[in-house]
Every structure is written in structure tokens, then in C-alpha cells.
Design brief:
heterodimer; A: mainly alpha; MetI-like fold; 2 domains; B: about 300 residues
Chain lengths: ~300, ~300
């Protein structure tokens, strides 16, 4: 298309300069991503030079139908879905609530927005360590408050379900800011005339939200729901920092890592079951795909109904 | 995010729901009061953990053991000195800075030369190329085959190999392409007429014009590398290559119960990100919202 920078061989320059970026992308991202399905049918280990054999569906069979191990896998799968459900709904609701509040003319709104968004950039290590301290069981601030209320918790050192619940709290704390800024960006696209019109028609603030803000927020609602669902299904870094590979708390993402690269992060000598881990990756991928596509389909139908 | 006048849903409360006439100011306040109550509760939940961190980092160990939440009296700056030397900060922080800098710089240069011709459709199949980048966001994780690849290339436990892992970021390409499309095409024609070659044109004319997008993508990419924990755990076994994230986990393993020193270490690690964040918040937010909407 109307290339002005040369003819003949000169026409090839953009191709030449585009090549490195595209090549690296194929090499380290797209290629490996597609190869995951291939590896899931093998008994690959993480040892250099070790033979890799084709074993068909064995990894999948083992993952899904082999006694205690697969019961543990189903438990991890269940936890992944529970984690996704709680994180998605709570983060969505809080993000929306705070975005709507901050969309008003309030003193210090920039300060609040900055504060709530800040954890997003800190990363799992800092987020995790900050909360390990905040939830210090022997007289930390949260422990003190709970003491006043007559309860107590061992937090991350407590029963698996309890520790798991606290990881959900930290996950939401860490990522609510993203949901919030996407909603704020969406709210800013709602024309102010509509609010004025709603005012003149005598709508209450709840009616205004229901009939003006909420429908017009549809694009950000869709984005946030999809991002939260996909993100929380794959999130497990906070589990690594806060709990380690602890029975009764693993989610699928962590299970993949642990089987593929050894359960203790420090030791390299333990044998890595990478074919099996690849099969587990494919199962997680299929869950993400099915849930993501279903949500997308529902959201699109809703969008057509609302926005025409 | 701009600070211009926003649609103000609180105004709905200012108006009487029946007559549509403004109520006296006194009755409005409740909505605003409630808003502030919510904001302040969340401010405590968000600032609390960080204030606890700062406070703990200034305490002595006995002080912390006696009363974990009490305000520091001794202002132990020694914790920072301890943490700095014991956690091997100079080395780990240096590694992180090197990885982040080189990977981000190399990524941005290659990304511009992908995004520009694709946005301008100067290469055949531009649409297909863009789709290929977007598709990656919906494919299985690359973790296992990527490891096999690095192992067989001899790039395992190798800083160069580690940097190579960060030379791809599909969302960045999408953001750059969208921004380049807003730059008028006539620029290209004029540049070419003046005898500017393609390479020089992209570097000296296009790059300055798309600076906001470059800043956004760089910042997002750099934050990702800075915070990365999984990849160094997988790929870097030699302690002298550890980035700060991995180093911090090791430090926690050793000093896990000495919270004052550990808190000082975490604070040292947090400060660069906080400062960066306060200055570049605009780019980070615009990158997240754009990437989210377009991706």
C-alpha cells in the first residue's frame, strides 16, 4: 500500500526489519504455546538429553482416572473454580462500587484512586510479604482486631481452607485496582447530558445507576468480567509466596508448576514430569477456554439486548 | 486520567426525586458522607499493610516481639543496613536492573519495527500478523515447551537466555499499532520525498511521534520483568544470577522470623516501584485500560 521509501529491493526493507520481532515471538511464545499439546502426549522430563517417548493419552488418563492422585487433581480443580468465583465476583463488585464513588466530585479522589491502584504494580512477592506481616498471628493488627471481636485465626499457617480464604483476600486486594481503573475509564465515556436528563426526569440515584450508568458501562463490564475470570483461573503466584505447595490449598496452576519443575523451588535434582504437567496445562487451558467462551457468548447476547 | 468535570451521579441526590427541584444542601450530605466512609475504610485496608511494614522496619526485634503493632520508638535504621548487606541487595538489585533494562530496550526496538509496517500495511498480510499476536492471549501457557527449548539451546541458567524470554509481549504490539494508526500517513510521504530512508524514518520521525505509546508499553513491560518470580525460579539456579524477587524469597527463607529486618528488605525492594509508580501512573493506567479493551 503506497509505500514511499523505495522500489525493487528497497521494498524489502520493512520485511527485513520486521523479521527479528516476529521470529522471537514465534520462537519463545507462539511456538512453545502450540507445542504444549504435543508435549502432553509424551513422557518428557526436564533432563537434558533424556529420551522423550510418545505415550498417547496416558498423561490424561493418569490425571483424570488414577486413584488418589486424580482425586487430588479434582480437588485442585475445584479450588481453582472456587478461587475464580470468589475473586471474580468480589473484585468486580468492589471495583465497580469504588469506581462509581470516585466518579463523583470528591475531595482527595486522586489520592484514593492512587492508593487503591498502587498494589497492582508491586508484584506477588511484595504483595505477599506485606500481607504475611499484616496478618502476623501473634499480635499483628488484624489478629488484634479479631481478638477484640472474640475470634482468632492462624491466617496463612492455619487450616487449609482458612489459609486459602486469606489468599483470596490478598488476591482481591492486589488486583482490585485494575478493575477499578477500567470501570473509571468506562464511566468517563458516559455523556453527562444523560445524567442531567435523568435528573430532570426525577430519577433517584439508584434509578440513574440502573438505567443510565449500568447499561452504558456494558463494554467495561464485559472487559472486567473476562479479565477477572481468565486471570483468576490462572493465578497462583500468591499461593507460592504465601503458602508454598501445601496440601489442601493447591490450585491447578501451582500443580502444573510443581509437577513440571519439582515441588520445592530450590532443588533442581528432583525429576520433572513435564509431559504430565503439559497435559495438566491443556486441561487448565480447556477450562479457561470453555468458561471464557461461555461468558463471552452470554455477555455478547446481553450487549445486543441492551445496546441494540 | 484527566481531571476535567466528570458526569456527577451525586447530582442525582441533589435533586428531589419527585419534583426534580434542588433540595436544600443539608440533605445532600448523606450520600457524600457514605461515600467518604467507604473510601476511608478501603484506605485503611490499602494503606494499613504498608504502614505496618514501615513501622516494623523501624523497630528492634525485642520491640516487635513485645508488641507487634506498637509505634516504633527506637527508629532502628540499622535494619536497613542489615537488610542491604545480608540480603545481598547490591547484586540482586543490579541483576534485576540489567534484566529489566536490556529486555525492555530490545523488546521496544523490535516491537516498533513490527508495529509500524503492520499499522501502515507496508508488509503483505499485515492483518494476519496482527491476528497472530492477538491469538497468543488465548492459547495454552508456553511454560513446558519453552523450558525444553531453552534447555536444548543451552540457555538454561544463562542471563542472556533469561532476557530472551522477555522479548515478546503481544499486548504491547497491539497498543503500538493502534497508536501508530493515529499518526497521519502523509508524514511518510513527506519523509520519503525528503529522501529519508525507511530505517531512519522510523527511528527519527516515527519514534518521537509515538512516544506516549512507547512510554506506556515500556513501563508495563518493565514492571512485568521487575516483578517476575516464576521464570527466575525455573531458569536461574545460580545464585549470582538471581533477580531481586528470587533473592527476596531466599532471604525470607532465612530471616523469615526476623520481621524487622525482613520488613526493611521488603521496603527497600518496594521503594523503586513506588517512586516509579507515582511518576508514571498515567502511562500505567492508560496501558492497562487500553490493553484490556483492545486485547
Amino acid at each position: 500500500m503506497n509505500y514511499h521509501f523505495g522500489r525493487g529491493k528497497g521494498r524489502l526493507v520493512p520485511y527485513l526489519l520486521l523479521f527479528p520481532g516476529l521470529f522471537i515471538y514465534f520462537l519463545i511464545a507462539l511456538g512453545p504455546s502450540l507445542a504444549t499439546s504435543v508435549y502432553s502426549f509424551t513422557d518428557a522430563t526436564g533432563i537434558k538429553g533424556a529420551p522423550i517417548n510418545w505415550i498417547g493419552l496416558d498423561n490424561y488418563k493418569e490425571f483424570l482416572f488414577m486413584g488418589q492422585a486424580s482425586r487430588d487433581n479434582y480437588a485442585a480443580l475445584g479450588r481453582t473454580l472456587i478461587f475464580c468465583l470468589f475473586v471474580t465476583t468480589v473484585q468486580f463488585a468492589l471495583g465497580l462500587l469504588i469506581a462509581v464513588i470516585l466518579n463523583n466530585k470528591l475531595r482527595g479522589k486522586n489520592f484514593f484512586r492512587t492508593l487503591y491502584f498502587m498494589p497492582v504494580i508491586l508484584g506477588a512477592v511484595i504483595q505477599g510479604l506485606i500481607w504475611s506481616l499484616f496478618l502476623y498471628p501473634m499480635g499483628g493488627p488484624v489478629a488484634k482486631i479479631m481478638e477484640l471481636l472474640g475470634t482468632r485465626s492462624e491466617f496463612f499457617g492455619g487450616k487449609p481452607t482458612e489459609a486459602f480464604a486469606w489468599v483470596i483476600v490478598v488476591q482481591i486486594w492486589a488486583n482490585m485496582g485494575t478493575t477499578m481503573v477500567i470501570f473509571i475509564a468506562g464511566l468517563q465515556t458516559v455523556p453527562s447530558e444523560l445524567y442531567e436528563a435523568a435528573c430532570i426526569d426525577g430519577a433517584s440515584s439508584w434509578q440513574t445507576f440502573q438505567n443510565v450508568t449500568w447499561p452504558l458501562l456494558t463494554p467495561s463490564v464485559n472487559t472486567n468480567l473476562l479479565l477477572n475470570i481468565i486471570g483468576s483461573l490462572q493465578a497462583w503466584q500468591l499461593f507460592l509466596v504465601l503458602l508454598g505447595y501445601r496440601n489442601g490449598t493447591q490450585v491447578l496452576g501451582y500443580l502444573i508448576y510443581a509437577t513440571g519443575f519439582g515441588q520445592t523451588s530450590g532443588s533442581v535434582t528432583s525429576s520433572f514430569r513435564q509431559g504430565y504437567a503439559a497435559a495438566a496445562s491443556m486441561i487448565l487451558f480447556l477450562i479457561v477456554l470453555v468458561l471464557g467462551m461461555t461468558t463471552q457468548a452470554i455477555l455478547q447476547r446481553r450487549e445486543r439486548r441492551i445496546l441494540g | 486520567m484527566s481531571t476535567q468535570l466528570k458526569p456527577d451521579s451525586a447530582t442525582a441526590m441533589v435533586l428531589d426525586s419527585v419534583s426534580g427541584k434542588p433540595r436544600p444542601a443539608k440533605t445532600i450530605r448523606w450520600g457524600i458522607v457514605l461515600s467518604y466512609v467507604v473510601l476511608i475504610i478501603f484506605a485503611i485496608i490499602y494503606a494499613g499493610p504498608i504502614l505496618m511494614l514501615v513501622n516494623t522496619s523501624l523497630k528492634t526485634m525485642p520491640e516487635f516481639m513485645k508488641n507487634a503493632v506498637g509505634i516504633s520508638r527506637s527508629f532502628q535504621f540499622k535494619n536497613f543496613v542489615d537488610a542491604w548487606s545480608k540480603a545481598n541487595f547490591p547484586r540482586y538489585m543490579g541483576n534485576t536492573i540489567l534484566y529489566t533494562f536490556f529486555a525492555t530496550a530490545a523488546y521496544i526496538v523490535t516491537a516498533i519495527f513490527v508495529a509500524f509496517p503492520v499499522a501502515r500495511q507496508y508488509v503483505k498480510g499485515s492483518g494476519v500478523i496482527l491476528t497472530i499476536f492477538v491469538v497468543a492471549l488465548f492459547l495454552p501457557p508456553a511454560l513446558i515447551p519453552q523450558f525444553q527449548l531453552m534447555l536444548n539451546l543451552g540457555l538454561y541458567n544463562n542471563p542472556v537466555g533469561y532476557i530472551l524470554l522477555f522479548l515478546s509481549n503481544p499486548i504491547g504490539i497491539v497498543i503500538l499499532v493502534n497508536y501508530i494508526k493515529t499518526v497521519p500517513k502523509e508524514m511518510d510521504e513527506v519523509g520519503a520525498l525528503d529522501g529519508c530512508g525507511y530505517f531512519r524514518f522510523v527511528l527519527t520521525i516515527v519514534t518521537p511521534l509515538i512516544q506516549p505509546a512507547i512510554a506506556t508499553v515500556s513501563v508495563l513491560h518493565a514492571i512485568g520483568i521487575w516483578n517476575e518470580l516464576i521464570l527466575p525460579t525455573i531458569y536461574l539456579t545460580n545464585e549470582k544470577y538471581y533477580p531481586i524477587t528470587r533473592g527476596m524469597i531466599v532471604f525470607q527463607g532465612v530471616y523469615g522470623s526476623n520481621w524487622p529486618t525482613l520488613a526493611a528488605a521488603v521496603l527497600i525492594m518496594t521503594l523503586p516501584m513506588l517512586i516509579l509508580f507515582l511518576f508514571l501512573q498515567r502511562y500505567i493506567v492508560s496501558g492497562l485500560t487500553q490493553g484490556a479493551v483492545k486485547g
